[in-house]
């Protein structure tokens, strides 16, 4: 049977509140038809760098099979190499914490906003990728009702890397699976495909539409149109690991390790006065600006000290701040690994999470030194600020808000599920890591020599959060460190004293 398809531009969006829709994921909802990057992310995040290297080595075979039209065979190979032997929990964690960001960055604005989101009935998504990789994203972010995907065999909580019956979900198998979901009766109102081949599942659709533009012409879904805000995510890679990008990463890795070690050693060995020049010579970029009252506060000596309250991008935030100010600031933190403490060129003080004791500790430190704190308590990669703890505002007489941006082109300098003591290494492994610091106008704290009264600390903390968000163009939230770790890792994110 020859099916007639309409271009997606012909879709009429009004009055679709009860219409059901079935859409292909690759090439329709997603701009790219290649699934290689998502298998690579699973191989790296759930399996480690050696498995990712092995996956990259078999990519020529995968490309050959796809060129010959053997998509099912290519998917068998990618599934086996990326998941065989891995704990099912690790694959699910990568699918929940890492893959959604890359899926969203590749989501087609025309397909999602133009068709899929307009249909208010049941939403079916069909894909050849394994269910454990795609279902968290599709249900949580695209509000999919049913997912037709490839099943993977497991035993004893581990993936075997083998596809379970009925096999890779392509062609006629999609039609059969969709018929089973419909119970053999009724049809789907709208069908959406990639436009390159016929899709048997569209025989069950009343209206059929195709996405035809090339990847170069397609527009990704804007952040403000995300069906759910992407605030937290994990994983080390900044860019989508296509075969070419993965190869570049592999070739850069030896030099990046040497460069990161050199940057750390220079930071430990050189005095503050020489560190900016040494960092610039090794590709580190730091851009700084001061508001008038911030410059005055940092330049004068005053009894009681100053707290620099910054948004948290990486573990290097306090170190870069101290280097810029040419002061040996004290970094106050709740949770820091032993290795990070040893390698820190500035003093660090770990708080106890006992509010009264921590307040006394910070007041004692302020009598001798200026402090730098990250009131969010954890890093956030996206343009959002987490809730600021008010403790810093309750112990300081003067606070300088500090808006920080930290950018790397290859690696993120933060993690939830990985080894936190490697965070600084990964950020410094970027070819040209960049920091931008904006010291804002000083703000009076709520401490006047007696216990702060009422909600003064909360008011000051909220005002500073809003000032930093306004400077960066970020959005304030009430989310906390605990929310982040529970969403991504299922724990509270505490680092034990003995953690290396």
UniProtKB/TrEMBL annotation:
One of its GO terms (cellular component) is membrane. It is found in: Membrane. GO terms for molecular function: glycerol-3-phosphate 2-O-acyltransferase activity; phosphatase activity. Keywords: Membrane, Transferase, Transmembrane, Transmembrane helix. Its main location: membrane. It comes from the Eukaryota. Belongs to the GPAT/DAPAT family. This is Phospholipid/glycerol acyltransferase domain-containing protein. It comes from Colocasia esculenta (Wild taro).
